[in-house]
Specification:
357 residues; two-stranded parallel sheet; 13 helices; disordered C terminus
């Protein structure tokens, strides 16, 4: 089964889970039950959902549309949270949280560890799966805003629903059509996002409607092939570097055209170089540029007597070199996570988490 089919299956599953939750809280598709008429134990949760919907109601002016918009944001947030963990697991940035294995009794490694510290949860629904995942999100939230408890739309389905959603995520790498290394690619989060939006993009195309301001990013979303990214970054950032340091061996690793045989640009500290992507989307160009910048810093250390620390290079790149903006806040969120993962991966030390900007 193709990746897009897995993505759409997972999306439908999460969508149904949050539709169920909204309905349980009295926010049914056709109309909302007054909060005073639902069970007292649910009223606080209901008020939080009302808060989520308020901005959508103000913008859309229609209850049903506002409800769907709020659900859509909850779906995207949970999808992105779990997908990002799968990517970080595949790069061995921390022990497995989502991936389940037979040798761990069908649980993830971290779930087993968590149960050792919370033995009372063994008798809870799905062995405390919801509480376990909430704890893991909270821990990651110390470094990544997406996982913070106060992040908008950071809601959770039931333990049974979570169990099924995680099973679907884990089915992706088990599918021969996707491959066991599907989560390892630097651009996988971008591909997931494009597939996630496939339904809306096709619906917009078929409708023939005029593209309103809130759908511009959906219509204009085009995923740039990796070979194009490499060609453009190599021959802008890479070319500028070679014009400052024409004897650099970077030219042996990257495909840079028309390299000068003498210095044509005044050398500068790498921390003064800037790369801006004015429509960064999910960060494809920025992620590749991150790797190139890293190699440039190493080149400066090894061949030009710059006193940098390899450990500090990801931090310097984040703080000085890369800039991106986009109309699509969801895409920008993915770009931020992908850059964090790249920084964490190149940092090399599990104990050292680079700052989140």
């Amino acid at each position: 089964m193709k990746l897009i089919n897995h993505v759409l299956d997972i999306r439908r599953l999460i969508q149904q889970a949050f539709d169920n939750r909204f309905s349980r809280m009295g926010l049914r598709k056709e109309a909302a039950t007054p909060v005073e008429q639902i069970p007292a134990e649910h009223q606080e949760k209901r008020r939080k959902l009302d808060e989520l919907m308020s901005s959508h109601l103000s913008e859309l002016g229609d209850y049903e549309e506002a409800r769907q918009a709020a659900i859509n944001e909850c779906v995207f947030t949970l999808f992105n949270r779990i997908a990002a963990i799968k990517v970080m697991e595949s790069k061995e940035l921390f022990p497995e949280i989502i991936t389940r294995r037979k040798e761990n009794a069908g649980r993830s490694f971290e779930h087993n560890v968590w149960l050792e510290n919370h033995p009372e949860e063994r008798s809870a629904e799905r062995e405390g799966l919801k509480h376990f995942l909430s704890d893991q999100f909270e821990s990651l939230g110390e470094h990544i805003p997406l996982y913070r408890k106060d992040y908008p739309y950071a809601l959770m389905p039931t333990a049974d629903e979570l169990h099924e959603i995680i099973e679907k995520f884990n089915a992706v790498e088990a599918d021969a059509d996707c491959g066991a290394d599907v989560w390892k690619g630097d651009d996988i989060l971008g591909w997931l996002y494009e597939n996630f939006n496939a339904v809306e993009k096709e619906a917009l195309k078929q409708s023939g409607e005029k593209t309103e301001y809130n759908k511009v990013s959906l219509q204009s979303q085009v995923y740039t092939p990796q070979w194009v990214v490499k060609f453009l970054v190599d021959n802008t950032l890479g070319k500028a570097y070679m014009e400052m340091f024409p004897d650099s061996h970077i030219k042996d690793k990257y495909q840079i055209a028309n390299i000068p045989d003498h210095q044509v640009r005044h050398p500068k500290d790498l921390r003064q170089m800037r790369l801006l992507d004015p429509a960064c989307g999910s960060g494809n160009f920025l992620i590749y540029a991150f790797s190139l910048f890293y190699d440039l810093y190493v080149d400066q250390m090894e061949n030009y007597e710059r006193d940098y620390s390899r450990r500090d290079i990801p931090k310097m790149i984040v703080e000085n070199n890369l800039f991106g903006i986009d109309l699509d806040e969801r895409a920008a969120q993915i770009s931020q996570i992908a850059l964090f993962i790249k920084a964490r991966e190149l940092g090399g030390h599990r104990s050292h988490w680079p700052p989140m900007w």
